[in-house]
Amino acid sequence: MGMMPTPDAPLGEKAMIEAAEKALADIAAVRQAVSKVIFGQEQVVENTLLAILSSGHALLVGVPGLAKTKLVNTLGTVLGLDASRIQFTPDLMPSDILGTEVMDQDENGRRSFRFVKGPVFAQLLMADEINRASPRTQSALLQSMQEYQVTIAGRPYDLPSPFHVLATQNPLEQEGTYPLPEAQLDRFLLQVDVGYPELAAERQILLETTGINEQRAVGVVNAERLVEIQKLIRQMPVSDSVVDGILSLVRSARPGHGNTETDKTVSWGPGPRAGQALMLCARARALYEGRLAPSLDDVHALAEPVLQHRMALTFAARAEGMSVRDVIAGLVKRARG
Predict the structure, then answer these.
(1) Most-buried pick from 168, 215, 267, 286 (CB within 10 A)?
(2) For residue 142, what are the contacts with CB-CB under 8 A and spacing of at least 6?
């Protein structure tokens, strides 16, 4: 931690601004380093980094082959995190993720159990195609995401710090997938939609990745510095108007809260975690965009990644061909007035 008086003492205003300016510079350097390897997809990179800066996990949704794995590897390198990857399959067992106890025997024939850590013991874990594994295996991962520890044979083992899960999910209703239950989706701070690249970016991908000299990611910060920035983000002041904006947006997305449009279109809305996510991510987004204080613009820009996996539409709305994104866009439009 360096020589800090107490790790969580609130900073004075001058020290706060100084620390925020240093964080701004570091985050700008991280953005720069990622953009040398990942072309286009600025929104995807931004939202994924915001989830990490806000100490959370992200769910990346997109068809296979859109460089999601490459993004996670790149972030691991740039942020100086120890990364690992698990490919989820229908036969994957909880122990394949968490680890197992093995029996050891010493030279005197005495037997003892030793815990062999599974791939979940990483600072940045890529859980690939998470909806392909059985619900039991999914929940083993989701429990560790929630509790930051793993319990094997009654003994708890702490996961590394920081600990971030970037899970990928294929949107196509493919064979052999188990959709994540709502309560488990709520564990993800953000849902990041990964679309096809723009033409210019796809041209760059073609030219830069099929030659001999492919760009390699370089480290910019380390895990210790990342944790400092995460703590700083939690200490950034948020104005009353932004707090009010978060509350009114989240509440407007819930049926039975006086919004007639929502009552017609939404069958269940976002819980309090959505507001917490907006509070954290709005601060992170301000720094990411080079500002020292979050604004209502940050809240509105984050509405879709924060809310879309925390609400569901009524049958009537789905029958009309509406999507959750359409509903959120409508709520944001109303909030902007």
Answers:
(1) 168
(2) 184, 187
Segments making up each domain of the chain, as ranges? 1-89+120-235, 237-337
Cα 63 to chain centroid distance, Å, stands at: 18
CATH fold of 237-337 reads Helicase, Ruva Protein; domain 3 (1.10.8)
Q: Which of 39, 49, 76 is nearest to 205 (CA)?
A: 39
CATH number for the domain formed by residue range(s) 1-89+120-235: 3.40.50.300
In the structure, what pLDDT confidence band is assigned to residue 1 with cuts at 50, 70 and 90? very low
pLDDT interval class at 56 (50, 70, 90): very high
- Decide if 226 contacts 52 (C-beta within 8 A): yes
Let me know if 3 is exposed, middle or buried by CB neighbors in 10 A (0-12, 13-18, 19+).
exposed
Token readout for 271 is: 């819980």
- DSSP conformation class of 308: G
Question: Tokens at residue 333, please?
Answer: 């439009």
**Cα gap 87→163, rounded to integer Å:** 18
Q: Residue 111 burial by CB count (10 A; 0-12/13-18/19+): exposed, middle or buried? A: exposed
Strand-pair category, 155-158 with 149-152: antiparallel
**Cβ-based burial of 81 (10 A; exposed 0-12, middle 13-18, buried ≥19):** buried
Residue 172 parent element (H or E):
none
How far apart CA 41 and CA 194 sit, in angstroms, is 8
Radius of gyration over every alpha carbon of the chain, rounded to an integer in angstroms? 21
Span 274-304, pLDDT tens digits: 999 999 999 999 999 999 999 999 999 999 9
2: left (phi over 0), alpha (psi -120 to 50) or beta: left
Is residue 132 within 8 A of residue 169, CB to CB? The reply is no
- Count the neighbouring beta carbons within 10 Å of the beta carbon of residue 271: 15
Angle at Cα 217 formed by Cα 213 and Cα 223, nearest 5°? 165
Give the position of tokens 């899970």.
167
pTM for the full predicted model:
0.89
